Amino acid sequence: MSHTRPPAPLAVGAALILLGIGATAASFNIALDQYGRWGARVFPLAGSLSLLILGVIELRSGQAARPERKDSSSLPAIVALLCLSVAYVWVMGRVGYLISTGIAAPLALWIFGIRNIWGLVVAAILCPLIYHLVFFVALGVFPPYGDWFDLLDVLQVN
Fold first, then answer.
1. pLDDT (mean) for 2-31
2. In this structure, is the dihedral angle defined by the CA atoms of residues 58, 73, 117 and 95, taken in order, positive or negative?
3. pLDDT at 15
4. What is the largest CA-CA distance in the chain?
5. Domain boundaries, the chain
6. Which residues contact 121 (CB under 8 A, 6 or more apart)?
7. How far apart, in whole angstroms, are the C-alpha atoms of residue 26 and residue 43?
8. DSSP string, 15-83
């Protein structure tokens, strides 16, 4: 029995590391608060660094000697999720958090095998709502607004 590195942990680890590096760099583009403190930058930076650390852990686990695996059935889902995450960040910068999350949440569930249309519709509505309440209302983080259009401009009552 030969021992080689399985491809999945290496691909996942490399993808997590690349996402972590990109997200960490993007986190430093978040403006400091009015007192010059990191403020809203802390949570995205912590998440970005967590991605980076998890990527290193996953990469190291793939370097351990294991029996050879031929199953690469999860590779298309990994690539699809990576593409979705890049598109999600781009779309969020254009149309804001609510619309981009309403699109990305059911697509991510679809990638993970959820095919119930009502479940996907509910995810498109509840995920942006719940995440908005947790991060932007309860935690007081400022939402990323869209350059072209933002649903928060329409929904917020002054």
1. 77
2. positive
3. 85
4. 68
5. 9-62, 75-155
6. 106
7. 12
8. HHHHHHHHHHHHHTTSPP-TTSS-GGGHHHHHHHHHHHHHHHHHHHHHHS-EE-----TTHHHHHHHHH
Which pTM value belongs to this model? Answer: 0.58
User: Once rounded to an integer, what is the mean pLDDT over residues 69-94?
Assistant: 83
Q: Is the pLDDT of residue 82 over 70?
A: yes
Question: What confidence score (pLDDT) does residue 41 get?
Answer: 77
DSSP letters, 34-47, are: TTSS-GGGHHHHHH
| Stretch (H or E) spanning 9 | helix 7-27
* Stretch 109-132: mean pLDDT: 91
Q: What is the pLDDT of residue 135?
A: 78
Strand partners, 3: 67
Q: Which of 149, 50, 138, 137 is nearest to 97 (CA)?
A: 149
The distance of Cα 138 from the centroid of its chain, to the nearest Å, equals 20
Integer Cα distance of 31 and 9 in angstroms: 35
